[in-house]
Amino acid sequence: MLSVASVSSAGGAANYFAKDDYYVGDGPAELSEWGGKGAEALGLTGPVSKDDFEKVLDGKLPDGTIINAHEKRQSGTDLTFSMPKSASLLAQLGGDERILLAQAAAVKATMAYLEKHFAETRDYSRNSKGEPTQTGNLVYALFQHDTSRKLDPQNHTHAVIAALTQTKDGKWQALHNVEVWKNNSVLGSIYNAALRSGLERIG
Known about the structure:
- Helix 4 (85-93) packs across helix 5 (97-118).
- Strand 8 (164-166) and strand 9 form a beta hairpin.
- It is globular and about 55 Å long.
- The protein contains seven helices and nine strands.
- The chain has helices at residues 13-19, 37-41, 50-57, 85-93, 97-118, 178-182, 184-201, and strands spanning 2-7, 32-35, 76-82, 120-123, 131-134, 140-147, 153-162, 164-166, 172-174.
């Protein structure tokens, strides 16, 4: 199952998640990682640090440039990919790490499709309201979690997409995420099919 939510632009969003040890914190480093061609362009690889996570949510590039400093800007979009409860129980009670690898592969396949087809910004050169323009790159962070907020076994992955993307001429601009919201059912179907295929391969 896939659910989509906005990451509030209220100050300290990253601090809130870190405080809860939900996205970033003192957990194992392998529970988080950067993803997307935009992240690669910014030199963001490997485990996600709280400081870097907060900066990209604030639209701050490593060189200090701030993208879309509008006071009502969104920090990002949170896609939550949730495994079926039965699969979570098999992974946790049965100790089968292959299930978690199948989950990770399904999420990454879905995010690769999203990045290729739905990563957009706006071009204001011909229209004051802006025209959607595909960029083909995202800056996002993946976070693994194994329980629900009620502490029930429920393996799921958060893909938190920062509200910035790089145009073909190298300029960083605000991400236009309308297509992500419009196609959330498509993305959910891609994830479900990829996870099902992965689980079938391991029997």
